């Protein structure tokens, strides 16, 4: 049986604050001191924050099938948003996280003054456009409403997907940082910005929605079958990776997990489990 720990946004915020206050302490407080990086206590569990699907699923596969052989004690904590895994990693509430891609992390670090760094790429979740009423991309017409994620990077990524499929026109050069204000031709469409995790639930209220791959799977959507259009995997910069607070990359436990996440066994698990909805994307993360 899996022993995951699910943390809601409210509870995690309180826990992170309380732990942050107690963990900082003073230099004279022995309990406040902790070893990190190469000096970390390898007998302790490596606590990793993750989105439930597919991140926690992949980590639990590693935990249940691979970690023991490598002498790795792995604990998975599930978070249901895109903010708390980073703040918990920064504060030391968890040792690492696995839920995000590089454009999102770069934007988060810049805005929140955090120092999270990627360790190893693991997989790609193609972003897709879905609808309960429209059966074909060509049937999306003026006057209809499309829901998109409201965070900077996934919102821009969503608009790029729409632009690449001629549903809108964007200003030249805006790239993945595109905002609704960068649309030069909406082609009569209306847009509704929502927190990424809630977009699937909006499908009953809008004509179409751009949904992140992990949230599509959680909503029992099959990206390869149910999407009107799906991001191309080739050359895609949005690989999801294991990340830690800067300075902890050489923690032996992190190095073990990074190796296991790029193993042949994990590659097969991803391919067999997700059937193209999630694809392996192993290797070193892209540099800023």
UniProtKB/TrEMBL annotation:
- The keyword Membrane is annotated on this UniProt entry: yes
Q: Which UniProt keywords apply?
A: Lipoprotein, Membrane, Palmitate, Signal
Task: Report the source organism.
Answer: Streptomyces anulatus (Streptomyces chrysomallus)
Domain of life from the UniProt record: Bacteria
For this protein, the record's InterPro entries field holds:
Lipoprotein_NlpA (IPR004872)
Q: What is its main location?
A: membrane
Give the signal sequence positions. 1-23
Q: Which Gene3D superfamilies match?
A: Periplasmic binding protein-like II
What protein name does the entry list?
A: Lipoprotein
